[in-house]
Design a protein that fits this description.
By secondary structure, this protein is α/β, with parallel strands linked by helices. Helices cover 40% and strands 13% of the residues. An eight-stranded parallel β-barrel has the order 1-2-3-4-5-6-7-8, surrounded by seven helices. Strand 6, helix 9 and strand 7 form a beta-alpha-beta unit. The longest helix has 17 residues. The protein is globular.
């Protein structure tokens, strides 16, 4: 039985919990700048993640580790200025929350005050429990992130699927339930077996957003540069490309170069 889709003029953390309860899937994409965020928001996305993936797709780093809190605030500020409907969630970057709950709170307050973001996202479970509690106690909404946590890449040593073994799967379920109990409003599960992700989604009342976690969760997230085909070097199984902008853009730019060289551009109608 299908449920009538509610028309949300503005998405809030409460909206997402309602969407899960009503069986409506949640759409989420990344954005890092004003122009792209304006397009994504206008297209009707529910959640925009200002991801630390900006370290990769915007700055060209191999991992998400180098991006700083100041840089995340810059990207988030640009996105927030563009958005009218979507909920804007901002990643806390590596080193800004892991070891010191007070530092985690200071980082979160800076993001909320200086960027205008609506919530923060942290990677990890039990090991960052005190940081999450500190942030939530200050009234700042928190989205969790379990499974493959890219900020821990040097601990894992690989970007392979996580929680395939029973012990890690059990810990992931326990961490997810703990995050809900602490007060997180939603959870991202990255690159874990689909059956496990579905089990987690059914075991908690808060929305579970998947990336490489199958279709049994409450919503999906992708990196905008990947799904638009701007990045032609990244092709994991979970990625569906909706455009091939790499090819379209290089063709367009090559055409511009050719027209300039041949003096076809500008023509008589393109001059004052």
């Amino acid at each position: 039985m299908s449920v009538a889709k509610k028309d949300y003029k503005r998405i809030t953390t409460k909206s997402l919990i309602e969407m899960k309860a009503n069986g409506e899937k949640i759409s989420m994409l990344t954005a890092y700048d004003y122009t792209m965020a304006k397009i994504v928001d206008t297209a009707g996305i529910d959640v925009i993640l200002v991801g630390d993936s900006a370290s990769n797709v915007m700055a060209g780093h191999e991992t998400t580790l180098p991006i700083t809190l100041d840089q995340m605030i810059y990207h988030a500020s640009s996105v927030v200025r563009a958005v009218e409907r979507a909920l804007v969630v901002v990643d806390l970057p590596f080193g800004s929350y892991q070891s010191d709950p007070k530092e985690a709170l200071r980082s979160s307050i800076r993001i909320m005050k200086e960027s205008g973001g609506h919530a923060v996202k942290l990677e990890g479970g039990k090991e960052i429990k005190e940081s999450i509690k500190k942030i939530l106690n200050a009234g700042i909404p928190v989205m969790g992130h379990l499974g493959l946590t890219p900020q821990s890449i040097y601990k894992f040593g690989t970007y392979t699927v996580r929680a395939k073994e029973e012990a890690e799967a059990e810990k992931l379920i326990e961490d997810a339930q703990m995050l809900e109990k602490l007060g997180c409003f939603a959870l991202v599960l990255e690159k874990i077996p689909a059956h496990l992700a579905e089990k987690v989604a059914k075991s908690i009342a808060i929305p579970v957003i998947g990336i490489g976690a199958g279709g049994g969760v409450d919503g999906q997230v992708l990196v905008i540069h990947d799904m638009l085909g701007m990045n032609n070097e990244f092709s994991p199984r979970f990625l569906r490309r909706y455009l091939n902008l790499y090819e379209q853009m290089t063709t367009a730019i090559s055409g511009y170069v050719s027209d300039v060289k041949s003096q076809d551009f500008p023509n008589a109608n393109e001059q004052y």
